[in-house]
Automatic annotation (TrEMBL):
UniProt cross-references to SUPFAM superfamilies, sorted A to Z: Acetyl-CoA synthetase-like (SSF56801)
Keyword Ligase in annotation: yes
Organism the protein comes from: Wandonia haliotis
InterPro entries referenced in this protein's UniProt entry, alphabetically: AMP-bd_C (IPR025110), AMP-bd_C_sf (IPR045851), AMP-binding_CS (IPR020845), AMP-dep_synth/lig_dom (IPR000873), ANL_N_sf (IPR042099)
Domain AMP-dependent synthetase/ligase: 11-342
Protein name: Uncharacterized protein
Keyword tags: Ligase, Membrane, Transmembrane, Transmembrane helix
Length: 470
């Protein structure tokens, strides 16, 4: 491998510096950095017997626990290009992921040869070296499946050097170190670079808790004196509506990601705990370029200004850069960019526009540098020539008492082409009256943005990474 740096080195260095510190706490107990390194090295030695020094793609499929971390770093040390697979997918979905991303070996708990009597099983699918990844960069390390901005399935390739640049850039704001205690609630398969790898690199403690039990989450934060909660908007809402007295004063950062969080929820959380909720804007091809740490109390709807190593701008549809306070296509430039797409094979330079990665989001940049995301360009609803972004309507709907979650989308209309439609999930046993909800919306939305069709449903369809399917 043509590189002097390997992502595995992060773990090795943390184990050297913080050997007795706890790396991860999960349902099985605690694992120190020295113990984590020992487990990783043992598995890596076993994997190397199968990889035979070839550059192969390794799929790993484990739940939110120590085994995911062990598999991730062991695969990296053994020289594989690692692609995490979400453990809650069906077997047919997993098979499709492995096939579409040309995975050679599959490390999991269900199928293949059991490795040294552990939960690690290895299925050999093929042994063809990955020449495509090496065309994109000399030091490939991770693959993330994504539909990108075009809707067509792709595999995003990241390099060892890119990972190092990403976590260095993010930590200029997050300030993670060996005293940090991370409260972990998100799927590890979707959040592992500018999060898990960063935490391990800095010797932090990762405390895993799961489910949608707000009291359990709050209890975990209290018990372990969590300093960072990296979560979804739903977790923030669960905490903000708890009735019991709770001490979350140990939290230094509360970061909301995966999808937009409403200002109402952020204000309720701040009122209850005195802690601002920072929206973060992460994107697979770039990393974590935006975090709203400066204006998270006054303007919680924003995703923040660019971190020091990034530049943001908005452009019109022909590529002209627009001025502040203008709505346009969001582009990001900076360090740690992806190496390229694997399907079809596309080098990064062929994707960027004057160095900017075009995100597919419509946004505006304020005079204070804060970015506000208005919605996905491909999700925009055209109501008789008027533009409606589902996200802004969802914000209003989710502020209505008793609405747990809203999904807004375009529905066909024979006269105007498209109208605004919505699905609402009630909170608990709340009875939602559609006419009352529409009357409420009239106070905050222009007439063309009002939902014309509303359905009350038990749940809205989400992607595996926690985003609303539209």
């Amino acid at each position: 491998m043509n590189t002097t740096f390997n992502t595995y080195h992060f773990l090795r260095e943390s184990a050297r510096r913080f050997s007795d510190r706890i790396a991860i706490t999960d349902e099985s107990g605690h694992l120190t950095y020295a113990e984590l390194l020992r487990e990783v090295d043992q598995l890596a030695t076993e994997l190397q017997k199968y990889s035979e020094d070839k550059t192969l793609r390794l799929g790993i499929c484990y739940a939110n626990d120590r085994n995911f971390l062990i598999a991730l770093f062991a695969g990296v040390k053994a020289g594989y290009i690692v692609m995490p697979v979400f453990h809650e997918l069906t077997s047919s979905e997993i098979s499709a992921h492995l096939r579409e991303n040309k995975i050679a070996h599959f490390l999991n708990q269900e199928q293949g040869d059991r490795l040294y009597n552990t939960v690690f099983r290895l299925e050999i699918i093929h042994n063809r070296p990955d020449e495509e990844a090496l065309e994109l960069c000399p030091d490939p390390v991770f693959i993330r499946p994504t539909s990108g901005t075009t809707g067509k399935a792709k595999g995003v390739l990241m390099s060892h050097s890119g990972v190092k640049e990403r976590i260095t850039a993010a930590n200029k704001v997050l300030n993670i170190d060996e005293t940090s205690v991370i409260i972990w609630v998100l799927p590890m398969a979707f959040h592992f670079v500018v999060s898990l790898v960063l935490y391990v690199a800095k010797g932090a403690r990762i405390v895993v808790t799961g489910g949608l039990d707000g009291r359990k989450l709050a209890g975990t934060i209290e018990r372990y004196k969590g300093t960072l909660l990296y979560s979804s908007p739903l977790h923030i809402r669960l905490l903000s509506t708890l009735k019991e007295p709770i001490d979350l004063s140990s939290l230094q950062h509360v970061i909301s990601t995966t999808t937009a969080v409403s200002s109402t929820v952020c204000h309720e959380f701040y009122k209850k705990y005195g802690i601002g909720v920072s929206q973060a804007y992460g994107i697979i091809e770039v990393g974590l370029p935006l975090i709203n740490t400066l204006y998270n109390i006054e303007e919680p709807d924003d995703v923040g200004s660019a971190l020091p190593d990034y530049e943001v701008a908005v452009f019109d549809d022909v590529g002209n850069q627009l001025s502040e306070e203008t709505i346009g296509n969001l582009g990001i430039k900076g360090t740690g960019m992806f190496a390229g797409y694997l399907s079809p094979l596309t080098k990064r330079e062929m994707v960027l526009q004057n160095g900017f990665f075009m995100t597919g989001d419509i946004a505006t940049i304020k005079s204070n540098g804060n970015v506000r995301i208005l919605g996905r360009k491909k999700s925009m609803i055209n109501v008789g020539g008027n533009k409606v972004f589902p996200q802004e309507v969802e914000f209003i709907l989710e502020q209505y008492p008793g609405v747990l979650r809203a999904r807004v989308y375009a529905d066909h209309h024979p006269l105007v082409g498209e109208i605004v439609a919505a699905e609402l999930v009630p909170e608990g046993e709340t009875l939602l009256v559609v006419e009352d909800i529409i009357s409420y919306c009239r106070k905050y939305l222009a007439s063309f943005k009002l939902p014309q069709r509303i359905r009350i449903v038990e749940e809205v369809e989400m992607t595996a990474s926690g985003k609303i399917k539209r």
